[in-house]
Amino acid sequence: MMNAILQATLEFLKLYWAPLLCGVAIVAILPLIVGYIVLVERKLMADMQARLGPMRVGPHGLLQPIADALKLLIKEDIIPDNADKLVFWLAPVLSVGAALLALAGLAIGPAFQIAQDINIGILFVVGISALGIFGIVLGGWASNSHYSLMGALRSSAQLVSYETAAGMALVSALLFTGTLNVKSIVLAQSKDGEGIWFVMLAPVAFFTYLVASIAETNRAPFDLPEAESELVAGYMTEFSGFRWSLYFLAEYTNMIVVASVATTLFLGGWLRPFASVPWLNFLDFVPTLLMAGVGAYCIVRAPKQPARVQQLFMLAVAGLCFVVGLALLAPVLVPVAKPFYAGIHGGFWFIFKVSLYIYFFMWLRFTIPRYRFDQLMRLGWHFLIPLSIINVLLVGVALIAGAYFNLKGWGLLLVTTPAAVIALVVALLILNAEKERNARQNQTAASDFYAG
Amino acid sequence: MADEPKEPKPPQVPTGDKPASSTPAVSTPPAKSADASAPAAPPKPAAPAAPKPPVVLQTPLANEFVTRFRAKFGAALLDAIEDRKQAILVVECVRLVEIALHLRDEEKFDMLADLTAVDWPKREKRFDVVLDLYSFPKNERLRLKAHAEDAEEVPSVVSVWPTANWQEREVFDMFGIVFSGHPNLKRILLPDEWQGYPLRKDYDILQQDTAWVRENLGIESGQ
Amino acid sequence: MGPQHPSTHGVLRVKLKLDGERVIGSECIIGYLHRGVEKIAENRTYQQFAPYVDRMDYVAAVSSGLGYCEAVEKLLLVEAPPRARVIRTILTELQRIASHLLWLGTHALDIGALTPLFYCFREREEILKIFEKYCGARLTTHAFRIGGLQYEAYDTFERDVERFCKDFESRILEYETLLTQNRIWIGRTKGVGILTAADAIAFGVTGPVLRASGVKWDIRKAAPYAAYDQYKFEIPVGTIGDTYDRYLVRMEEMRQSRLICLQAVENIPAGPIMAKVGKVLKPPPGEVYHAIEAPKGEIGYYIVSDGTVMPYRVHIRPPSFINLQAFDRMVRGHLVADVVAIIGTIDIVLGEVDR
Amino acid sequence: MLDKVLFYFFAAIAVASAVLMVTRRNVVHSAIFLITALLATAGIFLQLRAEFLFIVQIILYVGGIMVLFVFVIMLVNLDVALQQIQFARQKWVALLVALALAAQVGFMFWTSGKMAGQGLPVLTAVAANRLLANSETVAHSLFESYLLPFEIASVLLLVAMIGAVVMAKKRT
User: Fold this and answer.
1) What does the DSSP 8-state code read for residue B163?
2) Pairs from A277-281 (Cβ < 8 Å, separation ≥ 24)
3) Does some domain include residue B31?
4) Which position among A103, B213, C254, D45 has the lowest Cβ density within 10 Å, counted as fewest Cβ atoms?
5) Quick one: B177 and B216 in the same domain?
6) Which residues 6+ apart lie within 8 Å of C88 measured at CB?
7) The whole model's pTM is what?
8) Residues of A in Cβ contact (< 8 Å) with C108
9) Range of the structural domain that residue B221 is part of
10) Contact B162 C40 (CB under 8 A)
11) Are residues B163 and B194 in the same domain?
C-alpha cells in the first residue's frame, strides 16, 4: 500500500510541478503584497486628508506593513467563551482559502498561470470566491454575540445579492469571447480577436461589474456591515490577532481577485493599450519611462531622509526601479529578447491595470459617505440587477446585428454603442421610477430586503 | 487681578465642617418680605467700606398687559414687578396651568425658554418656581414666578409646553419639588437611588450622599 | 447604545425600543457628566465662577463666557465699552464657526465620509491659533471678564482674522463639493429626523435646529447684544426641518459669521477695553435672565443676587439639554442607522446637557 | 495510479462527512459536513474531466443552496431545535431501509461483473487536449437536443420564484 501512495505522489509531481511551484510562491508573497497595498491605502488616505500617514517605521513608513504583521502575530488570541471552537477556527481559514484558491484561475501574464488554462477559467474564479460567504457567516455565528451575527447576516445578504449582478455583467462580456478560458478571452481582445478591449464594446457591463465588485468585497460605500456604528466591527469583532489578519488578508485578496477578473475581461488582460494599432508602438517604452521616473524621484528624495539608513534604503529602492526599467526595455530593443516581450511587458501591464482598479476602490473609500443598509439593498435589487440583465439582452441583439452586417473589431463599435446608450436610457428610467416610488411611499416605510 | 483681595473674609468658606443643617452663614438673613423675591433692604454686613445706600431696582409694573391680566385673574396675580427692565409676574401656584394656557393662547407666549427654581429657606413659602416665557410674534420675554412650600405639589405645565418635561424633572431632582401631572417624574441627572436634593440651601456643598457612595463605590465618602 | 458609544459625542446612553430594524421609542439616560455647576456657583464669587462656564459647552466656550459676563453686567447695570463689545463679537463669531466645523466633521464621520473631518479640523486649527494668541488658551478660553476684556487685542489680530476669513470662503466650497450634491449624502440625510416648526417651538428647541424647521428667529437679530446691531447679516432658514436642512442652515451660518467678522475687523473702535467695575462686585439685590445665541441655540443665564459677593442662585438654560428632548420625536419610525445621523444633527455636547 | 488514489481519497471524505453530518448534534456542524461532502463529490466530477459539472456543483450546491441552509439555520433560533431529541423511534425503520438499499446496490455490482465488458468504469488517463471540452458538450446538448425541456424547467423555476415572492410579500 505504501509504495502505491509513493508512486502516486511521484506521478503527481512529475505532472504538476510548475503550477505547484507558482501556487506556493503566490501564497508566500501575497501577505507581503497585501501589506503594501494597505500601506499605499493609508498613505493615499492621508494625502487626501492633508496629513502624512505612517511615517515612523522605516523611511516614509515603508516598513509599516512588516510592523503591522508582527504586531498581529504577537497579539493575544482571544476566543470568546462558549464560542464554537471548531467553527471559530474554521471560518477565517475558509474565507482565506476561498480567496487564495480563486487567485489560481487567473493569468498574470501569457505564461504565468497557476491552473494551466482550465477550460472554465472565469467561472472557476467566480464560483470559488462565492465560497467566501461561508467564512463570513460562520465567523459571525461562531463568535456568538448578537451583534456579530447580525453583521454577518447583513454582509452575506449583501454579497449574495451583488453576486447576481456581477455574474450578469460578466455574462454580457463573455458573449464576445464565446469561451470561458482566461487565455483565450485575452487573446480575443488582442490582434487576432476583436482587437478592441471589451470595456469599449460593453461599457455598461463594465460599470455594473465595477459597482457590484465594490459591494462584493465589502468596501467603500458598501462597507456597511463592519462600519455600522452599533455593529462595531460586524462579523470580525470577536476575532483578534492572527485570526483577524486572516480575514483582513481574505478581504484584500478578494479585492485583487475582483480587480484581475475585471482587467482580464474588460481591460484586455496583459495587452498593451492599443496593442493592435501599429503606429502606437512607442507605448512600449512607457513602462521603462515610468520606472525611471520613480527611480529618479527616490534619488531626489534620498538626501532629505533624516537617518543615514533611510537614505541607503531610498537609494536601494531607486536602484531596484532602474533594474526593472532596464528589464522592461530589453525585449523592446534587443531582438534576441523578443520572445520574452509578451511575458515581461504583459506582466507589467496586467499589474498596472489591477493597481489602477484598486486605486479607484481606495479613492471611493475616502471621498463618499456610506450607504444605509436598506438603500444598499434597494440599489442592488431594484437598479443593478435589472440593468445588467437588460444589458445582456442588448449586447446579444448588438452581436446578432454585428454578425448580420459582418462587422469585425472596431466596426462592432457601430453596433454596441447604441446598445450601451439604450441601456443607459433604461437605467435612467429605472432611477426615476425609483424616485416616484420613494416619494409616494414616505421615507419611513423604506422596503428593507432583509428586515430582521 | 484674578484673586481679589480677601479683606472681608467671605463667610462662605466654612472654618470648620459646619453640620449641614445651618444655613450658609450668610450673615445677612434675608428679611422677610411678603412680595418681592428679593429681600427689600438687607442690612449690609459690617463691611469696612461705607455701607452703600441699599439700591432697590424693583419698580411695580403697571402697563396695559398687567391690567388686562389682573382683570382676568385678579386674586391669582400676587404682584407685578419690573426688575432691570424685565417684567416679572408673581402668581398663585394653584392656578399655574390655567394662567399658562391663557398666556400661551391669548398672549402668544408660545415658547417656554426656561423653567427653574430658587430656594429661600427663610420664607415659609420656601421655593420659587420660575418660568421664563418668550413670544415669537411680540418678541417679548416674561418671567412667571410661583411660590411653593416645601412639600407642596406644583401643577406641572408639561401639558402646555412639552419642553417643561425634562426641566421639571431636573428641578425635582435638584430641589425635591413634586410636579403633579408630570408624565414620569423621576431623577434625570443624579442616579435614581440618590438621597437628598443638592441645590437646596441646606444641602452643604461638601455633603455627598454618604450612603450612596458607600453602597455603590464601596469606599468611605470623601476619600 | 451604551455610554461609551463611538458616535454619541460624549457620555450619552440611549435606550432604543426596536421592532426589527425600526425604532419605535427611545429614552435618553444622561447625567454621567453632571458636575453640579449650579451648586458650585453659589459658593464662588462672580469672577471666580466665570471659568466654570467655559467647562460646560467646551466646544463653544467663548459664547457661554460672553453670555455669563453680559448677564452679570446687566445685573450690575454696567455697559462694556464699544471696543470691548466689537472684539467680543469677533471672537464669538469665530467660536461659532469653530463649533460648526467640529459638528460638520463628526457628523460626516458618523455617516461615513472620512475626509471632511480632516478638512474641518485644519480650519478649526487656524481659529484656535487666533484664540491662543489672544488669551493663551485654545478650548476653554475664559477670554472675557465682567465689564469688558482682560487682554488688549494683540497687534496682528486684525490681519490674522482677515486672512482666515479671506481663505475660509474657498474652504467652505471644498466641503460643499464633497457633500452637498453627493447622492449618498442626500440619501442618508434627506427626510431623516423631520421636526415640524410647531413641534420645534413646543419642545423649546432653539438655534439652527429651530431655524431649519422654518422659524426665522435668531437672538442676534431679535435682541441684539454685544455689537451685533452694527452689522448686516441674514438668518438662514430651512423648509422641512430634516437633517439635510439643518446641514444647509449651519453651512450658511458659517458664511454669515464670516461676513460679520469681516465687517467687524474693518473698524475696531479705539478706547478702553474695561468698564469702571470695582475689584469686589456686589450687585444690588434682584435677578436677571439674559440669553444669547450660542452655536447650539439659546443659552440663558438666570442669576439671582442677594447683594453679597457671591450669586445667590445661578441657573443656566443649556440649548443642548433642551434640544435633546426633541430627539425622541425625531427618531421614531427611522432605522437604527439613522439614529446616529440624528444624534449628530442635533449637535449636542454632553458637558452642557449634564452641567 | 494517481487517479485511483485521488478517487479513493475523495470517496473516503464524501462518505465520512456524510456519516458525520447525520450523527452531529450541532446543526451548524452538520451543515459544514454537508458542504464537505458536496465538495468531495465535486472533486470526483473534476477527476472525470467534467470540469463544468465540477464548477456548477460548487456554484449551485455549495455557493447557492448551502448558503440558504446556513441562513435559515442562523435565523431560526437554535436552542429550540436542540431540545427535541433527534432520533426518536425511527432508528429501526432507518436501518431496515438502509439494508434494503445495500442489498440492491450489491445485486447491481454482482450482475454487472457477469456482463461482458460492462464492469466498473475503468478510468484511463486521457490526454487533456484530445478530450472534447466539457462545457461545450454540455452546452450543445442542453441548447440543441434538449432545448424544450430546458425552457420548461426555467419557466417552472420562474413560477416557483414568483410564488415565493408573493408569499413573502403577504407576511411583511
Assistant:
1) T
2) none
3) no
4) B213
5) no
6) C66, C80, C144, C149, C226, C227
7) 0.78
8) 369
9) 190-223
10) no
11) no
* Gap from A370 CA to chain C (nearest CA, Å): 5
Contact C335 A367 (CB under 8 A): no
Question: What is the domain-level CATH number for residue C196?
Answer: 1.10.645.10
Do D and B have ≥3 inter-chain CB pairs under 8 A?
A: no
H or E stretch covering B155 = strand B153-155
Give how far A374 is from chain D: nearest CA, Å.
15
Which residues face C315 on adjacent strands? Answer: C302
Q: Is the CB of D71 less than 8 angstroms away from the CB of A156?
A: yes
Q: Tell whether B124 and B164 lie within a shared domain.
A: yes
Chains C and A touch, using 3 or more CB pairs below 8 Å: yes
Query: Could you tell me if B205 and B184 lie in one domain?
Result: no
Q: Does C119 touch chain A (CB under 8 A)?
A: yes
* CATH code at position B97: 3.30.460.80
pLDDT in tens, chain A (452 residues): 677 778 878 877 887 777 788 788 888 888 888 888 888 888 888 888 777 777 777 667 778 888 888 888 887 777 777 677 788 888 888 888 888 888 888 877 776 777 666 777 788 888 888 888 888 888 888 777 777 777 788 888 888 888 888 888 888 888 888 777 888 888 877 776 677 778 888 888 898 999 898 888 887 777 766 555 555 556 666 677 778 888 888 888 988 999 988 888 888 777 777 766 677 777 777 778 888 888 888 888 878 777 787 788 888 888 888 888 888 777 777 776 666 777 777 788 888 888 899 898 888 888 878 788 888 888 888 888 888 888 898 888 888 888 887 777 677 777 788 888 888 888 888 888 877 776 665 444 443 333 33
Interface residue C155 vs chain A (CB under 8 A): no
Give me the residue from D54, D62, D135 closest to A131, CB to CB. D62
Question: Cell numbers at residue C102, please?
Answer: 467640529
Q: How many CB atoms lie within 10 A of CB C94?
A: 25
Chains adjacent to C (≥3 CB pairs closer than 8 angstroms) = A, B
How many other CB atoms sit within 10 Å of the CB of residue D84? 7
Q: Are residues B96 and B203 in the same domain?
A: no
Same domain, residue pair B222 and B173: no
Among A371, A373, A443, select the one facing C192 at the smallest CB separation: A443
Amino acid at B122: K
Residues 352-371 on A with a CB inside 8 Å of C are: 365-371
Distance from the Cα of A79 to chain D's closest Cα (Å) equals 18
Q: Is B84 an interface residue toward C (CB < 8 Å)?
A: yes
**Domain residue extents for chain A:** 75-268, 279-365
Within-domain flag for C29 = no
In a domain, C189, yes or no: yes
* The total number of structural domains that make up chain C: 1
Cross-chain Cβ contact C115/A375 below 8 Å: no
Decide if C25 is inside a domain. no
Which of the 8 DSSP states describes residue D75?
Answer: H
Structural domain including C240 reads 36-347
Looking at the structure, tell me whether residues B220 and B159 fall in a common domain: no
Closest CA to C9 of C37, C28, C35: C28
**Residue B95 DSSP code:** T
The three three-digit cell numbers of residue A410, written as one number = 472596431
Cβ-contact C117, C109 below 8 angstroms: yes
Let me know if residue B76 belongs to a domain. yes
Q: Mutation test of the interface with chain A: which of C4, C121, C336, choosing the one with the most A Cβ atoms within 10 A? A: C336
Instruction: Indicate whether B153 belongs to any domain.
Output: yes
Whether residue B204 sits in one domain with residue B110: no
